[in-house]
Amino acid sequence: MPSPVKLPTATAVETLPLITQPDPSQLDNIKAQLDLVLLALEALTGIGSEAILQAAIELKLEALVSDRVALWRLRQSSPLRKGQGGRKKLDVEEARALVLISCHLAKQQAEKVRRAVALLEQMAEQQREPHQTALLGDYLDRFNNTYQERMDEGETVSPAVLTNLALKLLIDLLFYSAPHGSRRLWLALMDRSKDGSQGSIAAVNPIKGRK
After folding, report:
1. Distant-in-sequence, close-in-space partners of 98: CB < 8 Å, separation ≥ 6
2. Is residue 38 a contact partner of residue 74, using CB atoms and an 8 Å limit?
3. Domain residue ranges of the chain, discontinuous segments joined by +
4. pTM of the predicted model, to two decimals?
5. Is 55 helix (H, G, I), strand (E, B) or coil?
6. At what angle do helices 134-150 and 24-45 cross, to 10 degrees?
7. How far apart are CA 116 and CA 87, in angstroms?
8. CA–CA separation, 29 vs 19, rounded Å?
9. Which single residue of 1, 12, 117, 165 has CA 20 to 30 Å from 157?
């Protein structure tokens, strides 16, 4: 039986450091990265908008993520997403709220995240492909299919790149599900957002574009 998740206080967003205000291009990268973290959680665990909204309530963040429409608009603000309808400017408080929600959900699903990462390590040791296991195969299929459905460049990104992105995000989830995971995610978002690749898959996937 999973251990209860300790709930942050109502001022938890203030625990995420903000040394400088992100500029619009940095916020674009942060929006894209957060949406992909949630996509990875959805693909691995099957959670949907109800679980995300419930997490917002438990974290006392419903003022920032109040309902399905508000959540959809926040997710749709990612520059990787298809279409322009409903897109809004994501402010820093909303971004920090999504960080706390993502890590809260990752902690709730920590057992499954750990099992998936352990399987990935096992497949690597055996020099086998990750999709040869049911858990990782289902995760990769759902991630790739959802990415292709939702993202503007989805149909042009190769399956190999999407698989690498999905596996990188899976490993990241292991760290985000650990104690102080929200701080770790926030600092990673701030660091990655400085590379200048506005909303591109390269900005959120260090595997792509490595020399």
Report:
1. 34, 38, 65, 74
2. no
3. 21-196
4. 0.83
5. helix
6. 140
7. 33
8. 17
9. 117
